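Good morning,

Attaching, inline, the backbone tokens for the sequence recovery test we're adding to the shared suite. The designed sequence is right after.
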């Protein structure tokens, strides 16, 4: 039975499509790495915070990353083991919990 070149082309195309489906379309080399190269445990006043990002460990990075963006647009990677950042995060979570419970409407049923 002779080998047909178009069978090879079809099988290679099929393998190519399968390989494309295995990778997310929005991936890039920089997105698949840890964003924090160096971390700091030095205290930063929460008044200077513009945003705080907590990235859990995953396929992109093996450790938890805490990225603080300050109001002057500077970003600082904070060591997740720093005691002060854990206190700040806990306080933010309590504040958000209080805001959410205050925003819930009181439902009344009228029969």
């Amino acid at each position: 039975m002779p080998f047909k070149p178009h069978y090879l082309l079809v099988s290679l195309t099929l393998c190519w499509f399968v390989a494309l489906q295995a990778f997310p379309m929005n991936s890039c080399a920089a997105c698949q790495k840890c964003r924090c190269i160096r971390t700091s445990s030095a205290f930063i006043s929460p008044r200077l915070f513009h945003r705080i990002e907590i990235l859990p460990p995953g396929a992109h990075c093996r450790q938890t990353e805490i990225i603080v963006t300050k109001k002057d647009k500077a970003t600082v990677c904070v060591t997740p083991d720093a005691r002060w950042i854990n206190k700040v995060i806990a306080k933010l979570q309590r504040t958000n919990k209080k805001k959410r419970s205050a925003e819930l409407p009181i439902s009344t049923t009228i029969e």
